Amino acid sequence: MSVRFDRLTLLATFVRIAERQSLSGAARDLGMSQPSVSRQLAALEGRLGVVLVRRTTHDVTLTPDGLALLADARRMLGEWEAIEDRHSADHVLLGTIRVVAPVALGQSLFMQAAAQFMEDHPDITIDWRLRDDAIRFAEEGCDCWLKIGPVPDETLVVRELARVERLVVGTRRCRATNADKELEAMPWLTLGPFEGNRIALFDQNGDARRFTVTPKLASDNIFAVHEAARHGVGIAIMPRWLVGAELDDGTLVDMAPGLRAARLPVNLALAPGGKRPARVEQFCAAVQNWCEGRLGRGH
Q1: Residue from 77, 68, 83, 71 nearest 11 by CA
Q2: Closest by Cα among 167, 177, 283 to 226
Q3: Which overall architecture, per CATH, does domain 3-87 show?
Q4: Three-state secondary structure call for residue 37
Q5: Is the dihedral of CA 219, 223, 224, 225 positive or negative?
Q6: FRET pair for 297, CA 20 to 30 Å: which of 1, 33, 105, 196?
Q7: What is the location of CATH 1.10.10.10 in the chain?
Q8: pTM (2 d.p.)
Q9: Secondary structure (H, E, C), 104-124
């Protein structure tokens, strides 16, 4: 076994310890004994001259040096996999892709893209995590992060996949009940992460109409707001991908024709570095094609 391979093995074992937060859990995953995992960790710490983890009775936590190494270790292992992919005679995609996706799109359009990708590549498995909050990419251990809105980490490589059209919707009954009211005075259902109680709508010239509302319902879950709008509780800003069919069949109507909320970017974030496993690059390309076909790239 070469020295280089030894180092990669030590890094792979360390990454698994970090992901499992447990020596015994890492040992089970790797098919090794716990003493073997402990020896590899000790060897890596000895080679680097730093303490990487702190052990307690129940788990292990990374030290600041361990957190710093984790990002480098994942990048190096990913680059090594990319080299293997490039020079291997077998070009079948296999392995696990770890994805963090937003809750709403992750249960619908993004999952459709992922399901199609797994159907096309039967040896691929996907670790699919739904999160709307910001993550620490290196600590999360994902290969890619699908994010609605800006990605708050300038160290990541970010690709914009689409821009989501958003419009104000409600039922016909809601419109009739509030026909004598200005838009600002209607019962509003707001999605906390994006609107809160401040509404901003724009006409075709880009001129803004801004106002503050007291929401009849405020939620951090888009499906809850959507369901309330469908029941006629009030009006809400919804993405067209979610309400398009209901606009077509008349279940919901456009409550503010000519006005739209700002389009939200759908971003794909990746760890820095030029080389990634083929399965990750091809998955990202598949998701991008899926988004362009279903969400568009309007500005």
Answers
A1: 77
A2: 167
A3: Orthogonal Bundle (1.10)
A4: helix
A5: positive
A6: 196
A7: 3-87
A8: 0.72
A9: HHHCCHHHHHHHHHHHHCCCE
